[in-house]
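Hi everyone,

Forwarding the result from last night's run.
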Amino acid sequence: MLKYLIVALALCAVAHADDWKPKTGEEIRQIRVECLKETPLSSEAISQLKNLIFPDEPDVRQYLTCTATKLGIFCDQQGYHADRLAKQFKMDLSEEEALQIAQGCIDDNSQKSPTDVWALRGHQCMMASKIGDKVKAFVKARQEEAKKNASA
């Protein structure tokens, strides 16, 4: 068990030290598809996620953990990486402001929550922040644009 922990910590450290880059929209879409295959969600849960509602349910938590891990912004040993969160989701904020917000959402899981609960907690914090407000506005604008294009 100790060997596994050491290897896991080393892998997480190596992953954190690499030249990680924010994912493109297409890469994010592909990761979501992969995670839906790994953790199938009900049509109701998918509908909620499309509306940026993230219920505290095991399948949704596992899906969010999967996407955050595959995006490279979360590691089950260290949790969220504030620097990567800031780069991936800064929207039109300065990276410094985004980093301050992200750092405010990082916790060391001192309560020893299961990984999926820990990941959801950080996600909820980010979505309740100024970054979350900007993400919500961006998604809403894209949904409205898609509706216009569909009726044209």
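Helices lie at 2-17, 25-38, 43-50, 58-71, 82-89, 95-105, 115-127, 130-151.

Cheers,
N.
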